[in-house]
Amino acid sequence: MILLVTNFESMHALERVLPSLRRINHVHLLVVVLFENTEVWEFA
Q: pTM, whole model, 2 decimals?
């Protein structure tokens, strides 16, 4: 089991990494924990 705690700043960043995460998920149980950077949203 792999626990990945991450933050993607954009959908483009997520889409770029998604194929790799899917390959990892075929071999291991992958749990992805996403968090939101509220400071970035408040600044925007």
A: 0.70
